[in-house]
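Troubleshooting: if your tokenizer reports a length mismatch, compare your output against this known-good record of 170 residues.
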Amino acid sequence: MTEPQAVIAEDFAGRWLGRICRWFAVVGGAVLVAMTLMSVASIAGRSLFGKPVPGDFELIQIGCAICVAAFLPWCQMQGGNIIVDFFTVRASVRTQAWLDVFGALLLAAVMLLVAWRTGAGALAVKASGETSMIMGFPSWIGYAFMAPGFALTALVGLYTAYSAWRRRDA
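Known-good structure output:
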């Protein structure tokens, strides 16, 4: 089986996108570390003092959603998304490149749709004043932090499609 390869960003746009993706991943990692520390504090508080962090599961839900959206662009730029190559392992490099173009364009289209709907959802949830049950945390904030990650993933999808397009005649 062939392994997906990271996009080698040799042009300005690719280097620029790569840096932004890296920063999104760093922010996602920071959120993940914060969630881990909060979970440890909540478990320790529950075990030792009978007092967990109030609303810890609500914050974990929001944090996980933010992490996923923040890690997706880096994953696409690094060629880390799952590729099922069972049927294409013996295909020519050209055919594989065409399939990579199609897959990246499909990812870009879906992520653009998800970014749009997540942004629209954030506005609707903010207008309705919806909050989490225990903490009263405004729900729209989670949506608002997810939309940029999805939009960046759409841009990276377009860039990786372009990279595969260039590779098709190699």
